[in-house]
Each structure stands twice: as C-alpha cells, then as structure tokens.
Amino acid sequence: MNQETALQLTDEMYRVMDMFKVFKKQNPDTTITYPLFKFVLSQYNKKVSREILQGESFSLGSRMGVIKIKKIERKNFTRPAVDWGETNKLLKQGIRKRVFFTDRFYYRWCWEKKACNIPNKTVYKFSPTKGETGNKMALIKLLKTNEFAQLNFKS
To answer: Is residue 15 included in any domain, yes or no?
Structure first.
C-alpha cells in the first residue's frame, strides 16, 4: 500500500465514504458502487455482531485484540447498583421505590487488548453502538428474552 492510498492517522474519524475512496484508488477498474460497498460492509458488521451475541469472540487480526461479550461478577453487594429503567417505570406508576440489580453477574461488550500489539493501546477504546438498533440494546434484549443466553458468555 503506497502513501497516497493509505488512511493517515489523524484526529479525524474515518467513515465508509473515506474507505470507499481508498478502495477505488487501489482498485480503479472495479465496478463496485458506493451503495454496494456500504451494503457489504453493513451486512458483514451485522453478521459479526450476531456471532458475538451468540458467544463467539471476533479476532480483529494483525494482533489487534479480540471483541467479545464479557461476563463480569458484581463485587460489591453491600451497595448494589440501582436499576434505573425499572425504578423509573415504578415512578411513572406513582410508586416511589428503588429497584436494585440482584444478579450475581453483568455482561458488557469488551475489546480485549491483552494480546494487542499496538503502541499506546491504553489510549484507544471500543464503544459498541447505542440506540434501539445498536449492539448494546441487542445484548440487553437477548439477556431479557433468552434465559439461557448467559451460558454463552465467559468471564
């Protein structure tokens, strides 16, 4: 890959259009259009997300680490965390009571950087998508609707 076509590391974020421009420079004879390129990337990301939600780990390659869902044990049961979603539902019904999480474990998306071989890896972070169709909400829905889904994830 030459200097002109490589994405340069700057403070800017790169989007699909930027990747498509680099792809077109590297492959000038291709007939792939931007909508098709975007569609393929979207389908690939959705498939990876589904695999991770089924308990698989996704290796980023080039010794950049692994993305997975991690099972984490709650440490402090003397001060349990408030379940604000359920508490707010009760408040709307006129009931002023706090609801606490009582599960022994909680689950979260994780970029495991133990085997990661990039400089200053502590500065980088992984943020799963949010919103109604995002990966965070998909994990929440999975855990609420499938009582055996927790068995797929490891500490």
So the answer is: no
